[in-house]
Amino acid sequence: MLKISIFGIGYVGAVTAACISNDGFPVIAADVNPDKVAVLNEGRSPIVEPGLPELLRKGVENGLLSATTSCAEAIANSDLSIVCVGTPSRPSGDLDLSYVKAVAEEIGAALAQKDEFHSIVMRSTMLPGSMRTVVIPALEQASGKTAGVDFGIAYYPEFLREATAIHDYRDPAVIVLGAMDELTLERLRKINQRLTAQEFVVDVQTAEAIKYANNCCHAVKITFANEVGNIAQATGIDGHKVMAAVCADHRLNISPAYMKPGMAYGGSCLPKDLRALRYKARSMEIATPLLDAVAASNTNQISRAFDLIARSGKRKVGMLGLSFKAGTDDLRESPLVEIAERLYGKGFDVRIYDESVSYTALSGANLSYVRTHLPHLAGLLVDSLEDIGEHADILVVGNSDPNFQNVLQAARPDQLIVDFVRLDKDARTNGENYVGLCW
Ligand SMILES: NC(=O)c1ccc[n+]([C@@H]2O[C@H](COP(=O)([O-])OP(=O)(O)OC[C@H]3O[C@@H](n4cnc5c(N)ncnc54)[C@H](O)[C@@H]3O)[C@@H](O)[C@H]2O)c1
Q1: What's the CATH number where 20 sits?
Q2: Structurally, how many domains does the chain consist of?
Q3: Which protein residues touch ligand 1 with a CB less than 6 Å away?
Q4: Out of 217, 247, 269, 438, which one is annotated catalytic?
Q5: pTM of the model
Q6: Of 12, 28, 106, which is best to mutate to test ligand 1, by the most ligand atoms within 8 angstroms of its C-beta?
Q7: Does residue 257 lie in a domain region?
Q8: What are 326-342's pLDDT values in tens digits?
Q9: Whose CA is nearest to atom 31 of ligand 1?
Q10: In terms of domains, do 184 and 313 share one?
Q11: pLDDT confidence tier of residue 362, bands split at 50, 70 and 90
């Protein structure tokens, strides 16, 4: 039977110890705080969490759960360690990894005394890169061994919420495993054999990033609902009714829609409607810092996209797409129009292909808009993708028209591809001369 040690008997560690021991695995929990160790050895809970005292008592009574202050004892009596020590904020906002570093050094020293392959699984929340720059070096230095070879490494983020922690542990929405070696991955799967959640096996750094993306997403959701509620209340509307309908839309709202890193939003609705709601809030003296930041962030994304082109040093630009998304000729507030204008204004030699825009411009439907609003860009439109391919030193994929794929496939090796929408990340098999906007 796989034996587990758990470092840190706090909210995460106590719940993890209780659940794993009740799943039948022998668990030894380690903490530097002797009071927590004593409480757990008496079968009592060191924290308030519904259902936890019962599970801890059962674990101790069944002889599957015990606690110690000795790191060496915990390592010697287990095959896999789960580390759940605290990672508090520093006053600057940076993360304080001193507990993580200290526990890694202690575990490393204990690993030096152990011949068997031991797996170290970190569950403490840590910024991407912390495993590589802090945890692994501390373990390797103290043990004299090599991570992923002489001992196993994984980062396995914890998503439980206090007050529903046992339910969240037993029924997570997803499981994210960032393992460096197969044996550690296999061991984690054994511990999780009762869980039915979708599993994502990623590299260690991606696993660290997923935890932060999750928690920041939750914070943004709460703040968004609060700002909607504040505006609604001031207008005499029930914000709960508004958000209930918003959340019922599982196609566009509570869904993966709009959740891919890429180009700024644009078009005739989002920029206009965000502006109007912010104005309405301001007129009622309701602050909307989140909605304000959305507009600022979107502008920043357009600048970032422009800078990718401008910094390339190439002057002959072939833009694939002008409208804000494929399949429409609507140019109102298209971020690509903004980029094309900046390029034109700075003297770049630009050609633009957009099937929908060319079609309507040529057929007259959109011609007056292009003539009156974008006369300078009208002359840059070309009729065929081949024209773009021939002209460009730098190909800019602005929207996800699938026809652009052909241009990417036919691109010369010397042509730089700048992709705003991740149309084809593998267009360059060797990765050279391909730049993504946020990947
Ligand atoms: N609390 C949550 O809801 C939650 C959820 C998901 C992830 N997390 C993350 O999990 C980590 C732990 O959070 P927590 O709330 O359980 O922390 P906590 O402060 O409640 O517990 C941390 C425990 O680690 C112990 N500890 C410190 N150094 C040690 C060492 N060298 N050896 C053994 N034990 C040591 C402390 O004495 C303490 O008991 C944090 O990184 C946190 O961000 C927390």
Answers
A1: 3.40.50.720
A2: 2
A3: 7-13, 30-33, 36, 84-87, 99, 102-103, 106, 123-125, 158, 160-162
A4: 269
A5: 0.94
A6: 12
A7: no
A8: 988 888 899 999 999 99
A9: 103
A10: no
A11: low
